[in-house]
Amino acid sequence: MHLDELRDLLTRHARPDWSTDIEGVRLSKFESPYPPTPTTSGTVLALIAQGTKRLALGERVYEYRAGQYLVASVDLPITGNFTEASPEEPALGFGLTLEPSAVADLLLAGPDDARRIPGGPHSAIAVSDAPAELLDAVIRLLRLLDRPRDQAVLAPLIKREILWRLITGDQGEIVRQLGLADSSLSHIARAVHWIREHYAEPFRVEDLARLTGMSVSAFHRNFRTVTAMSPIQFQKRIRLQEARLMLTTRSADVTGVGLLVGYESPSQFSREYRRQFGTPPSQDAGHLSPSGRARAAALP
């Protein structure tokens, strides 16, 4: 019964741009599968009501389907697509942005054991079956789309409940790390943020390890645990995704795009781009469009 009502709400309220009138809530609807597409995860809860989605993070592959949810606690470069969708049974998804400040606030209000720092980092992405309590809270949140007058008061309360269900659920440690300033994940997230902001610049792993307060060996180990990549592989993935985004508006300047994202050698840029996306940038540029890129960005 929960999934039936959830499907109905998503079908009625999903918009082409996935936006809703409730802050942080996105709804997606796809009537056909689409090829695996590079995007970023964000820090998010993504719940499937119908269809199947597959995500790849480095060498790890995650698949989740109706009645399952995915949590991502670090904004990471991923490749994803819905593999099951049709006009008769469209893929339907719910997404909620997870704010570290909201997690921290809830942990402070909860019992002492909720603030226990986990012994080590976990992968930043995990999939679980959605319990009835979580589905019920999501449905009550979406019902508010039919009652605009109630949204300002009730939506924050229900989002807080959803967050608590995550914190106390199967993937609670992943979500709790998001709000704990001294957790290993928060330190790795600091390094991830630095690489994303300076992806075109060379860096020394020793400097990133110092930024996180870890030894080089511990930093390497924890970074790979969280992201499924080494720091250098992570930077390369970000560079190539940013290059692909730039090519949607600068298709005639492949060499310039390669330089902007940090490649000094056009041949190396073309070689690594082809390895990542299956076609060289000069060919791929002609098939890219801003609208297609935006379509791929929805994690739910």
TrEMBL record:
Query: Which UniProt keywords are given for this protein, alphabetically ordered?
Result: DNA-binding, Transcription, Transcription regulation
Please list which residues make up the signal peptide.
none
**GO MF term (any one):** sequence-specific DNA binding
Stretches assigned to the HTH araC/xylS-type domain: 189-287
* Gene3D superfamilies cross-referenced by the UniProt entry: Homeodomain-like
Residues annotated as transmembrane: none
Q: Which SMART domains match?
A: HTH_ARAC
Keyword hit for DNA-binding: yes
The superkingdom listed in its UniProt entry is Bacteria
Q: Name one Pfam family in it.
A: AraC_N
Task: Report residue spans for region: Disordered.
Answer: 273-300
- Could you tell me what this protein is called? AraC family transcriptional regulator
Record organism: Streptomyces antimycoticus
